[in-house]
Amino acid sequence: MTTNKTDLSADTSAQLSLVPLDDYVLEHTCVVCLDIMVRPHVLQPCGHTFCELCLRQLQQVAVKSMLNSKCILVPCPICRRSIEKCELICEKDDTIRSKYPSQYKERLQDLVVQQQKHENSELPRARYPAPARAPVASTQRPAPVVRAQTRNQRRPPFHGNSVAKHICSVVIVVSVYGLGGTYLICVATSLGLLKFCYRLVGKNGHGLTPPRGEGTLRVRWVRGISLMLFLAAVRSAWTLSWWKTLLLFPSVLSISIAGYALDGNGFTMFQRALDVAMLPHW
């Protein structure tokens, strides 16, 4: 055992003598532990390089000192800037492993031992810790929703409320066509009532010829009222306000029936009845 240790120290001193001291310190030595770098990592954004063993130790110290803090930030040992992430320098690691195999092997064993002692040891990085179960719950929660959506897609299209919606759509279409026809009848035939009214309030009594009322103000009022009633009935039917439709539809229908009854032959009938009423009694 003594001979092996003597040979190992001799080999190490021989290896150190092969490389100039300045180059060795600058390129292959970690400024924290003052030993050769094992798995060297470059820090972002500062760009300084340290061995992985020292970086993990810095991370553990930062976690212990910031247990009550909202964020865990590890500063760089040289410039004290916060470390955002660490990147392994593979080429430099291969160079150190090939030049100093015995020392690299010892340092690598120390790294493995530290990882075994601290299972949750990580490299420094900028992070804001959240509860441990929150990401798991957020990733697992959408799964039942997807299953529920697939079950809903397998249902038949006409199920429950869909049948009632189709029936309501048919009723609305029929109501709109019916109200449209009623409105046309109302506009076309309501002039008979207006003519009869003009007949009664004429200047010279009922013997005057009824004036043409298409361009008068009263005709426009009748058309405007009938139009507003029709639009209100259509709107109430479209918004499924059936009780409003039932209240408005009889008013539109009554205007149509009155105009149809008093126009044409109806006007002649009322005119004759008025003439008979105005005759002198015997």
UniProtKB/TrEMBL annotation:
Recite the UniProt keywords alphabetically.
Membrane, Metal-binding, Transmembrane, Transmembrane helix, Zinc, Zinc-finger
Biological process, per Gene Ontology: norepinephrine metabolic process; positive regulation of proteasomal ubiquitin-dependent protein catabolic process; protein polyubiquitination; serotonin metabolic process
Q: Which InterPro entries match?
A: RNF180, Znf-RING_euk, Znf_RING, Znf_RING/FYVE/PHD, Znf_RING_CS
User: Which molecular-function annotations from GO does this UniProt entry contain?
Assistant: ubiquitin conjugating enzyme binding; ubiquitin protein ligase activity; zinc ion binding
Q: Which residues cross the membrane?
A: 170-194, 246-262
Name all RING-type domain ranges.
30-80
Q: What Gene Ontology terms describe where this protein resides (cellular component)?
A: endoplasmic reticulum membrane
Q: Which residues form a coiled coil?
A: none
Q: Which SUPFAM superfamilies match?
A: RING/U-box (SSF57850)
Question: What is the protein name given in its UniProt record?
Answer: E3 ubiquitin-protein ligase rnf180
Q: Which organism is it from?
A: Plakobranchus ocellatus
Lineage of the organism = Eukaryota, Metazoa, Spiralia, Lophotrochozoa, Mollusca
